[in-house]
Amino acid sequence: MVRRLYILPILLFILLPAACSGDTALRGDPPETAAYVDLRRYAGQWHEIARYPNRFQSECGEATAIYTLEKDGSMTVVNRCQTSSGLKETRGTARVSDPSSGNARLRVSFFRPFYGDYWIFHLGTEYDHAAVGTPDRKYLWILSRTPSMDAELYRELLEKMRARGFDPERLLVTGKVNAKY
Prior knowledge:
The protein is of the alpha+beta class. The protein has a single domain (about 30-180), classed as Lipocalin (Beta Barrel). It is built from three helices and eleven strands. The strands form two sheets. Strands 1-2-3-4-5-6-7-8 form an eight-stranded antiparallel barrel. A two-stranded parallel ribbon has the order 9-11. A hairpin with a 5-residue loop joins strand 6 (about 115-125) and strand 7 (about 130-135). The termini are far apart.
């Protein structure tokens, strides 16, 4: 019995630092968001160009999201993706969670009453591309208004996200990234 009491503190001493140092997504300050998001301009269809792999999109190939601004200021969200068995669709609601963020910090729910963070980290000046995800850096999506994105723009977005603490190497390209010839 006495020997077992010594084993627990030793295990905690060895395992706790390893557990705490593992995922860089949980360390550091939250990433900077876009300065201001005009939700009317943000509304519409977005094509996924790349994403961090995640369990709820594990079967998805090409994916789109359609945002519709409602009269109460919330947004209806319709996510669609192509799977081997056909089109998969999920509907949800997004709301600005922090008005002082310039509308860049939202909370989205696909299964009420559960909400998750949806932050807009970067937004093109013409609202033609975006990088969105979660402040813990667990999720990241690169979005475009068209199904393809210029390779140079894609590389620029990767660097912007790297500067915010994201790991671009984790991205799974699901759309088209076009090189200029």
